[in-house]
## 1
Amino acid sequence: MADKPTLAFFSLACCEGCQLQVLAANEKLLPILERADIVRFREASDGDADHYNVTFLEGSIVTEHDIERAKAIRAKTDVLVALGACATIGGVNVIKNFQESDDVAEYVYGDKKDWFPHIPTRPLKAEVQVDVEIHGCPINTCEFLEVAKCLLMGKPYRQPNYPVCVPCKLAGNVCLWHKGVPCLGVVTRAGCEPFLCPSAGHKCIGCRGLVDNPNTEAAADVMAEFGLTVEEVFREFSLFQGIYDDVAKMK
Amino acid sequence: MTQIDIHKGAEAESPYVPKMARILSAEQMTETERFFRIEMEEAPLAYQPGQFVGVTVFGVGEAPISICSSPTQGDAFELTVRSVGLVTNKLKEFGEGDRLGIRGPFGNTFPYEEMKGKDVLFVAGGLGLAPTRSLIRYVLDNRGDYHKVTILVGARDPSLLLFRDELEAWTGRDDVETLVTVDRPDKAWSGNVGVITRLFAKIQLDAAATYAVIVGPPVMFKFTVLEALAEGVPENRIICSLERHMKCGVGKCGHCQIRGVYVCREGPVFTYEQVKRLREGI
Amino acid sequence: MLPQVLKRNDLAAWVEALMADRTVAGPVLKETNVSDPSDEKFEWTVLEDAGDLRLDYNLTVLGPKSFLWPPRQQLVAYRLDDGPDPQPLIEHEPTVLLGVHPCDATAIATLDTAFGKDIPDPHYLARRADTAIVGLDCAAPCHESSFCLDMGSLYPDSGFDVMLTPMGEVIFVEAATDLGRALVKSAAVRPATKDDMEARQKFAEEKRSNFHYKLPYELKYLPEVLEQSYDSLVWEAIARRCFSCGSCNTTCPTCYCWDVTDDIADDLSGGVRTRRYDSCQLDTFAEVAGGENFREERSSRLRHRMFRKGKYILEQTGRVGCVGCGRCERACVAKISIKDTYVQIAGTR
């Protein structure tokens, strides 16, 4: 009987909230723990190993050192899972790419800014091969469990490729646009159900990135008709989706 | 207006529950195509040439697959599965003795009754040979019912040719003319080279008496139809089988719909005359 | 059964009586606009308190369809140990849908045909067979996007067991089926008087004057109008604004396309095959496993929906696919309107 597969969790630039979302699965983690060994998870335990069957890597790449770490982890890993918006699309960290690099460093580190060299924010897939993506800020615990089940069963995980509007309508929500709130659900990849922001009255801020073939032009037009300026439209999109060319060119 | 008996329908057997089947044998035919011979665990599958089944890998999902055997071959049936999706990739790991779920058979059939006494020209490109084979085997097993039989088979390269043993056996028969071509030959290949329409120059057609069964990728279908029309085969005797993602098989889920037509019920077999009218067919 | 009337004050008692032995679903207040209290949004839900029922409701996001054809429905359960033993999951309980507007009653009749024809779908039909439809007539359009008069759904002659017509202090109650007559037995109805009949007549006149035709042609010409528009540039023009978000489909009372997934239990002991409302507007709806997409262009998907609603469902079921409720237009952030599209294409050839 082969050993149980090994799982590891690592973070780059992020708040580690996605790891906490994993722990939030509570007893639903137990069937996974019966079938796999977590060898590295600093939010939950000590320990490490030389090789990981599956690594969940959260956080974005913001320094040269991050690139090295990501590559080193990739080299020890069979299946690399990008965990959370920072890892899959750069997350909110991408905002700094639209500001003067020096200003950002000074704002954060003051006169010690030279001690902390940094590069434009990028998602993991810009530097290493990513096998599975779990989007979201933070991730949806249900989707994490789904991915874990797929990995244990040896089948690929297919992430949703339709916008948040689908589960939002199925939940019977009154469209936020009709309440005067421009919501990014129309172009944002679904997969957050049953924890949809619009179900709680909040607009979708696009934390799961764009669907594969978004009509961002129409979105910008419709938002403009709605009374938003170009800058406001860009600000809506760039909170999470600045990494996409469609969005970057709005600026 | 269609009259519906809701209460009778409420008691109907669910069409979505797979029935258990067992794999009798499996063989990797090419790098991406795997052949299965399958037997239902309870009642045998009652099918006709041209139909398809839904294959369930429990825990993974279901995929629609054309039946590539003929009911004349016995109670078991055969599938040729190309590994391109969730389910079909998983099927690569399946072999003799493994169990699957089967729904169906679904869809209409090749017009094998209507074709009796006529010439039959089969033109199969790539994986198109799988559904075509169901009719080829049927015709060969009832050889006396049909007049002249011609089989044209094409593949991108020799490694992608399906049913090579059978192609050789058919080539060896004197009551069937079989020609095989590849787009890109390897060093060992001594046969025909070039797209499948090039084979038309090598055969004699009595167009007015011929049914042309053409199954293959859209581009191949397009040019082969032009060839058949140029030879004078009537539009309603050019027969094809269309590929769509049939998810339910019973004309409800909508995924296979071409215009107003549910391919899973009204197809997958259509005449060129019908396909042309659909406009979104190919 | 002769026409009956129910005093509005006796309505709650009737609903309570129905709730005693059945699940009763109806329209209730969902939320109120913070800055405009008169702007109320309603939803269809299972009634917990008879007093929550709001017969003055307007267009809901999802219609009563979701009680017969839930957004997510489990079809088959199987095990993942030695023997999968797949079993159908068919669940139903005696249900009353109370307050179904004519458009939605018409749509339910269309769904009945779609799920009942050829190979019947017992997962839908078992619920349907166990459900009574209590209609609620409309005195005025409930939304500017609606065009139920054009689509022939404003005056349904079937698709309901009881029809209610609210007329001030009384509600006119007409039972159309045996099931309807049984339901009405528990209501404190009295035979309609001459005054009631006159009030009924007045309602009908008012209704007639409140609804106006919006299409420049009769419904029977719609399939031909659509067919002549097939190659029109109009589809591409409209599709430029389309997000392909599917909200038109997910809110439509007659849409019945679905996607199916195998969901695995958290302990990996078994799986459930589940269907979920799908949308022909979504990017990958017509994609096959090899990656070929037969309706890759937004415009071809948009045209497909407009054709499906005005032509294809009619060909399949004998009933036109659009009931003119206006939900799709209202749900569309880009304000794409099926009604305006049907007007626009009248000029194309």
## 2
Amino acid sequence: MTLTTEFDNRAYVPGETLRGRVSWPSSGPPPEEVEVRLFYYTEGKGDRDIVVVDSLTIDRPSAPDSRDYAFRLPEDGPFSFSGKLVSLVWAVEAQRDDDGDSAKIDFVYSPTGQELDLYAHDDGNLPKTGIFGG
Amino acid sequence: MAPVSVKSGKGNGGGCLILFGLVFAGFGGLFAFFIGKQIAAEVATRQWPEVLCRVERCEVADRETNGNAFTLEVAYRYEFAGRPYASDRYTLSGKSSDRYEDLAMIRKALLAGDGTTCRVNPDNPAEAVIRPEIGKTALIGLVPLIFVGAGVGIMLLGVNILRDKGRKSGATRASLSGSAKKSASAGWKFALLFGFVFGGVGLGVGIPLTLGPIKRMFASRHWVETPCTVIWSTVRRHESQDSDGHTSVTYSVDIFYEYQFDGQTHRSNNYTSLGGSSSGRGGKEAIVDRYPRGAERVCHVNPDIPEQAVLKPGLSPMVLVFLIPFVFAAIGLLVMWGGLRSWMKQRRSRLPAGARFLDDEKSSDATGDGGILSLSPGGGGAVEVAMNAADTGVVEGGGRVFRPGAKRLVMAVGILLFGLFWNGIVSIFVYQVIEGWQNGHGEIFLTLFMIPFVLVGLGTIVFFFYQVLAMANPKPEIVIRPPVLRLGQPMELSWILSGSVSRLVSLKLSIRGIESATYRRGTNSHTSTRVFFHTVVAEVNHVYDIKRGVATATVPADLPPPIKLGNNALRYELRVEGDIPFWPDVSDTFELPLLPPSSDPVDPAT
């Protein structure tokens, strides 16, 4: 399974469309289904959250071994950011069948064209908080 | 789609779940087997033919002649296939009880009327019983079956996890977004199963154990006072062994007395409506000393059923212990409710808002020619989440208004309820500890063990009174303009405080951005929070400025909007802090529903 985006290592801003191509080997049995998903997920100290924003499914693809896709990115975010506890990452992923091979590409999506830094305005005097157990 | 939480660390819970489920089901199966044997024997008696029998004698033998329990002694005659027989068995295993009253009621039923029926073994007509007990045993037999069912369910869950792991390791690259589907599906199922078992056992044990006795406790307050004579009075000792071989000893009050009611002689050994035993011998000895053998005392008799009597009517403190199964039931129901919510969220969020699949699109982009397949976006997460945030103010008169509302009262009530529950349970054990020390049988380990629990209980009491005092504090009303709050856009904040404002010596308004992350370690969950942004909007010391004022603030446009997911969140809050000497401070927070920066140079919201 191979997944590409129109531009490599490029950040996207609100209102843009993410375009690319998904392809699978023409040798071997064709997949029952190929699904391409646009989603974002968290990384960091907390357990991971994953939100699938959009997806498209190609049922029983036969003769072609590649497809172009496009997702219009949501104007109001959420946007890629990086913090000390939580970071949010956007990605597009393609998977064949339910448990089959997959390919993923992370990308940055933010109004500034760069990953937002939560601590960009940290002047060293931020109040402290804590840990709550349960 | 509703956010799905997936553990980011490695874990191999599948094998552990299978082992745990096997042990769970195994023990349940073992108990079910033994109970099943008993049920089988009792089922056989149910098949025996029923004949009329004449009860010649029925007595309740008291402990002094028959050991540690009251035993029902019965003798009856019957005919089978034209031949006379006699028997003395009430059930296959006999009938005995620690409560005289239970056997007295059976005796009353047997001796009433012209006779009763009994069941005769057709293969051995000399063997007969008056009553099979299949009803109760079958009900008891359901309990281990619940454990068997739960154990099998847990094993299947473990198999499922191992199978998924195998598939993932077989795949060249495991799908990240695909795991979201599977985790969402497994989570709510396990919660429903676990909650059902817990809740079922709790209610199944709690309801029969408590409802009848509680009803009777209230009714006993109105029973008839009747003179009674004490036959014997002692403290009974009960020993039980736990799985570690440790023997625990409990004690109960055992006072047997006789009384006359409606011209009939009755006996009973009920001290209160609720029986049971507990640790601590001293208190029970003090009770027994008040009822020496031969003493004339007053008991309370149920005028409708004179066999029922108690020495001390009304509620007994032991009822608190009987409420423990309801705690399990509450936990189980809460877990089930969580599982149901999760399932309903998934059903509602199956399709992201605005998403269209290729099939529904009926697009002119034909398949098979390498054309572009495009869909309109879903998402809108930030906007939707921000507007759904709790306590985000109301839009009135061109501004967004924030008021504390009932938050302070809710906090105080919440602490009160928690404190009552916590201290209610802890007080039972503290009473035992104190009684032990008073009687010279103090337990140092139990005493030390109870210290942190007592400290928490005392803390809740102090915190409750702190909250009550805080409820009398001045209340702020904050109005922010424009009502649609955006990152990068200046906001005008105006405040008015009502109440005894003169008590405040300073007032500070600030805005904070907070990131939070929840993670699980074993069965515990922890939430870490950290402030990533902080700006002081206003800080005043003069009473006129404290009572009312205006300030402006801007949250930078290069920060992300708030978001709330299953385990991770960003939020922005407006904090109002007022210092009152020698009194709880004013401290209110309001969540700010900040939207992303406007891309429209002429924002309609302004």
